[in-house]
Amino acid sequence: MLGGRLPKELRRILPIYVACVLFVLFFARANPYKSPLEASEVIKRVLAAYQTPLQSTRSAFPRKIWQTWKIDPLDFETRDSERARSWTSMNPGYRYEVLTDSNDLHYVETHFGPGPGGLNRPDIVNMYRSLNATIIKADLLRYLMMYIEGGVYADIDVEALKPVDQFIPSHIDEDDVDLVISVEIDEPTYANHTILGPKSQSFCQWTFMSKPRAPVLLRLVDHILGWLEGVAAKQQKPIGEIVLNFDEVITGTGPSAFTGLILAEMARQTGNIVTWDSFHALSDAKLVGNILVLTVESFAAGQGHSNSGNHDSPKALVKHHYHASLWPSRHPRYSHPAFGMVEECNWNRECVDTWDANKASFPSFPAEEQARLIAVHDEFLKEKSDKEAAERAAGERQEADRKQNEILEACAEQLRGFAKEQEASQQPAQPEPAQPEQPAQEPVQQTETQPPAETPQKQPSPEYQLHTDDEIRHTDPKS
Ligand SMILES: *[C@@H]1O[C@H](CO)[C@@H](O)[C@H](O)[C@H]1NC(C)=O
Ligand SMILES: *[C@@H]1O[C@H](CO)[C@@H](O)[C@H](O)[C@H]1NC(C)=O
């Protein structure tokens, strides 16, 4: 494939060159059944085929918002609906689509299978079909669908704070951009830390915007496929049975893989080595090649590290609630038996240094002291998990209460409406001493309600009244 960006001149010449080669081949073979007219048709098609993909990137970003989740949006729980609605309500000119656990495979088969319009990549389809690790599938799927159709991808727990048309600053031409990403973690002083190092500098891939066919996305997919095959070979297991820890997910398919391939793509496009230094302490959106990198505040404000500011900043475009992240519990990461996970320091220097020092000196502690520290930590973990379970239960109760209240409220609304109708139908029959001071309005009232003579006949039961509500409206001469 001619995936990489070609210099402008070469880009212009290439189709003609290819056409010439084919032209020569055509005559060299001297097929007697084909006329020269058909040959020129062939050349036209070849030219068209080469020009279409090259030009397709010089256009606007598709007006589409993508999410992926277990279930379709009509069945989302309230919290997810609200986040999803932040995207649709803020971007009324955009379409919205969710790929689910029920329709994802069909999507991948359609677009990457051998059928019409498919890219004929059986390796991708087979990998997607065999994979069992949800988080890896989710990572792969976002790259695949953005490669095919482009638009904005956002994880289910990401809330829109600003309309998508503010993603690209006004001084940058949308034509020059193929991909919009944001810094997430910018803590390069930890670059050599054994645990934090690999994730200390990264772009996020839980929200990004792409034009269709951005080559870096397919390269990312190829990288993941190769990596997964390597893991399966090492574990001597089929793809569906491989077991991954947290760091493997991060580095294999997640933010670290994404970041590494983005930097490589930038190097490919610009011809220079691009390192994290270019994005450290970024104060303004930066375009490298056709990749636009937004500041950490844009997508990842409020983290308490990486100088990420807060969500009130005018630069904050989205808010990540991090509640879909059940996957870390399924992919264990290093946790010291007495001091826990260094990630809990949230990149606080003092905390990390203490953790490092504790971990280093732990083996030299007397066995009793080690046992005591481990017991203290176990107690802490137990309290923490009890607290989390209680919070989850409270959340579920709240959601149940809310649903119940919704039903009760709807019921009450019905009853109020009914009471009003009842009142209205009884009014003319009642004596009217209360409004003697409004004689001018009386004729108006009479034309709007039924003639008083009719009402005594009609003393309907509540059910009857409800059912005839429509009939009354239908027989109303004004309608
Ligand atoms: C990490 O290690 C490399 C090689 O030893 C060194 O050049 C670099 O300065 C170190 N970086 C940090 C942030 O300590
Ligand atoms: C995939 O995961 C499910 C549930 O975790 C499990 O029951 C199934 O055996 C797994 N499949 C393979 C091939 O390991």
Automatic annotation (TrEMBL):
GO terms for cellular component: mannan polymerase complex. One of its GO terms (molecular function) is alpha-1,6-mannosyltransferase activity. It comes from the Eukaryota. Residues 383-406, 466-479 have a biased composition (Basic and acidic residues). GO terms for biological process: protein N-linked glycosylation. The keyword GTP-binding does not apply. Pfam families: Gly_transf_sug. Residues 437-460 have a biased composition (Low complexity). The chain crosses the membrane at residues 12-30. Keywords: Membrane, Transmembrane, Transmembrane helix. Residues 383-479 are annotated as: Disordered. PANTHER family: INITIATION-SPECIFIC ALPHA-1,6-MANNOSYLTRANSFERASE, TRANSFERASE, PUTATIVE (AFU_ORTHOLOGUE AFUA_6G14040)-RELATED. Belongs to the glycosyltransferase 32 family. This is Glycosyltransferase family 32 protein. It comes from Mollisia scopiformis (Conifer needle endophyte fungus).
